[in-house]
Amino acid sequence: MVDLIVFLTLLAMGYGFGRYAEKRHYQSIMKREDKWRHIPAVSTKIIPAGSKFSDSQIVMGSVVISVDYFKRFIASLRNIVGGRMISYESLIDRARREAILRMKEQASDLGANLVFNVKLETSSIYKGKRNSIGSVEVMAYGTAMIS
Amino acid sequence: MLISNLEIVPGRHIKQHFGLVQGSSVRAKHVGRDIMASLKNIFGGELKGYTELLQESREEAMNRMVEQAEAVGANAVLNVRFSTSSIAAGAAELFAYGTAVILE
């Protein structure tokens, strides 16, 4: 009985705080994406002919984000029936966008106006109970071009 | 030392190649961070302690790569790549590698 109460409390806390945190995070991501719109991050390696850059420097950004208890529970149910795991999709989407934003922040500190050859790397770094994915790390890196 | 993940540097020529240089760093998280992380596993959100830890160790891996490049007399490392692998429970290896060159 006590176990059940603890479980339900954790579930409710995860649902409440997790939803709030995700909403806040998405708001902040969209705001900062608008702010850094003038520094495009491109995945091409080829530098357009005729462009003049005086300096280049590697920049990177990384973030580790965790899912909440409620979403992990829903995902474990999803494991039984199969299908899209929406709770993890939004987690990884948030992490990728955040990592790119942090990379752009570093680029803007250097006075760059373009980031070339952007690569994204994802790894799950924490395995919780029963090997369920607890959190993911996303790292974005590229070469900032300073003109 | 110029570090870039492009194969060329605009406006400069590569005079000499030295081949691959690499640096790695293996880090483990400590208990305090683990407790915070397990709390965050309930509420969700960013694990700031882990982000910092991985960033620090990545910088160390990069520094080691740069040291190696300096030792062979290069003045730039091009085409840098990063990779992460977990080698044991609670420990991660951060690895950086690239090509050491002399730029004119």
Short description:
By secondary structure, chain A is α+β, with helices and mostly antiparallel strands.
Give short descriptive properties of this protein:
heterodimer; A: 147 residues; alpha+beta; Translation Initiation Factor IF3; 3 strands; 27% strand; B: 104 residues; 5 strands
Explain what the structure shows.
The complex is a heterodimer of chains A (147) and B (104). Chain A has one domain (2-146): Hypothetical protein apc22750. Chain B (Translation Initiation Factor IF3). Chain A is built from three helices and three strands; from the N terminus they run H-E-H-H-E-E. Chain A has helices at 2-35, 69-81, 86-109; strands at 55-66, 114-127, 133-146. A three-stranded antiparallel beta sheet of chain A has the order 1-3-2. Chain A is elongated, with a radius of gyration of 19 Å. The termini of chain A are far apart. The mean pLDDT of chain A is 85. The model of chain B has no long low-confidence stretch (mean pLDDT 85). Chain B has a single domain (2-103), classed as Hypothetical protein apc22750. Chain B (Translation Initiation Factor IF3, 2-Layer Sandwich). Chain B contains two helices and five strands.
Helix content of chain A: 40-55%
CATH architecture of chain A: 2-Layer Sandwich
Count of structural domains of chain B: 1
For the termini of chain A, the CA-CA separation is 66 Å
Q: Spell the H/E element sequence of chain A.
A: HEHHEE
**How far is it from the N-terminal to the C-terminal residue of chain B, by CA?**
13 Å
Provide the low-confidence segments of chain B as ranges: none
The ordered H/E elements of chain B are EEHEHEE
Radius of gyration of chain B: 17 Å
Report the C-alpha radius of gyration of chain A, rounded. 19 Å
Output the CATH class name of chain B: Alpha Beta
Largest interface: A-B, 46 and 33 residues
CATH topology of chain B: Translation Initiation Factor IF3
What's the count of strands of chain B? 5
Question: Helix- and strand-based class of chain B?
Answer: alpha+beta
Strand line-up across the major sheet of chain A: 1-3-2
State mean pLDDT of chain B (0 to 100 scale). 85
Please estimate the helix content of chain B: 25-40%
